[in-house]
Design brief:
Layout lengths: L4 H19 L3 H5 L1 H18 L13 H11 L10 H15 L7 H17 L5 H4 L1 H4 L14 E2 L12 E2 L3 H18 L10 H15 L5 E4 L6 H11 L3 E3 L9 H17 L4 E6 L7 H12 L8 H18 L7 H15 E7 L5 H8 L2 H4 L2 E2 L1
Parallel strand pairs: 3-6, 3-7, 4-5, 5-6
Antiparallel strand pairs: 1-2
Helix pairs in contact: 1-3, 3-4, 3-6, 4-5, 10-11, 12-15, 14-15
Length: 379
């Protein structure tokens, strides 16, 4: 039951317009808000028609969440770093690439999407593609490979929660920031990571950081074992000041231990209000029932009936002061307090899944648990 086009445009135009007005964006930038929404709509509709799922591409399913991810991604930028309409067009293309392009598995599909973005920039934004993306190509016509230089992130502006989302124009400076972050990580962790920082690392790091920047952003990292899924997640989390929780699987590890780990993660994100990354590898899924819990974490930010009555009481007390501060007029019933806890979990908890595409397990899991695709940004 998809909305019709007019309704979708109206919803996202309202969201965009309101956010830009409240954010104090310049008139030139506000003027292209409608173009951003219409362009995203065209990409979204074309992807549904042109990128069809097959057994080898079972994750080629698109829904309204993908549309929303592009719009929310564009709204990560602030008025002071928004620049002109060319920069906003580059930001829009970056968000489209992160949501749609990163999940594509063959060159034909990637080239198709690149050409589609070129057409949309010309027809919807009424801008010249070569001019807008000239900074990426340094003096020649921008190619699909040059789009790899297009990065936006908040890691260039120091530490803490008030970092600004902006275009990364200097890859050498980005490399230096990452190397410093890696050194700090290795100094405080008992399992140091011995990594060489090169272009591939920067690209994936940037993608994971973008997911963590969005409230309730989750990622599905698809790659063979040893391709850096876990180390990239740990490094991106360290750069963004997130704590990483990963289950330690032993021979005795069963459903009870798994449930305890989930409780620990939820309490950290919801009761302690800590920004938390729950990192899970496909080799750690000893029972398929684990995925049912992940499915509901992705969908609703909680696992139904996981807490006993006494634990719920404890949680309600832990968030009482924060709930009171957030809304002094609210009646702090147990129901209200628990919902407040769940909404905090939704905002603070990021689930990052590392799956291998080899064999039929990956395909079967995506079919059985559609929210692995629907609720995650796929890289």
């Amino acid at each position: 039951n998809e909305f019709d086009d007019e309704t979708m445009l109206r919803i996202f135009n309202t969201v965009m317009g309101r956010a830009m007005r409240d954010g104090g964006f310049a008139g030139e930038v506000q003027a292209i808000a409608a173009s951003i929404v219409a362009s995203t709509m065209q990409i979204y509709k074309s992807a549904i028609d042109g990128l069809l799922p097959t057994p080898a591409k079972s994750h080629y399913t698109f829904n309204l969440r993908d549309f929303a991810r592009v719009i929310n991604g564009v709204l990560l930028i602030s008025a002071k770093t928004a620049g002109d309409k060319n920069k906003m067009c580059r930001l829009w293309a970056h968000e489209v690439f992160r949501v749609f392009y990163d999940r594509l598995v063959d060159d034909t599909d990637r080239t198709w999407l690149f050409n589609l973005v070129k057409d949309v920039v010309k027809n919807q934004f009424k801008l010249t593609f070569d001019t807008v993306f000239a900074p990426l190509a340094r003096g020649r016509a921008p190619s699909e490979d040059d789009m790899r230089n297009l990065m936006f992130g908040d890691y260039m502006s120091g530490n803490g929660q008030d970092r600004v989302y902006d275009e990364v124009t200097n890859l050498d400076a980005f490399t230096a920031v990452v190397e410093t972050g890696l050194e700090e990580y290795n100094n405080v962790n008992k399992n140091p990571m011995d990594l060489i920082i090169f272009r591939y690392v920067l690209e994936h790091l940037s993608r994971i950081s973008r997911v963590l920047k969005q409230d309730g952003g989750h990622a599905l990292l698809v790659g063979v074992g040893g391709s850096g899924r876990q180390s990239m997640t740990r490094l991106a989390s360290a750069l963004g000041d997130y704590s990483v929780v990963q289950p330690e699987i032993t021979k005795q590890y069963g459903v009870e231990e798994w449930r305890d780990d989930i409780k620990k993660v939820l309490k950290r994100a919801g009761a302690q209000n800590k920004r938390t990354v729950f990192l899970l590898n496909d080799t750690q899924i000893k029972k398929e029932s684990f995925l049912e819990d992940i499915d509901s974490l992705l969908n609703s930010g909680e696992v139904a009936n996981i807490f006993a009555v006494d634990e719920k009481v404890e949680i309600c007390e832990a968030v009482r002061a924060a709930a009171q501060e957030a809304n002094p007029d609210a009646e702090l019933s147990p129901m209200y307090l628990y919902n407040f806890f769940v909404s905090r979990c939704r905002d603070n908890l990021h689930v990052i899944l590392g799956f291998s595409p080899i064999g039929s397990t990956f395909r079967n899991r995506l079919r059985m648990f559609p929210s692995l695709v629907n609720c995650c940004t796929i890289d």
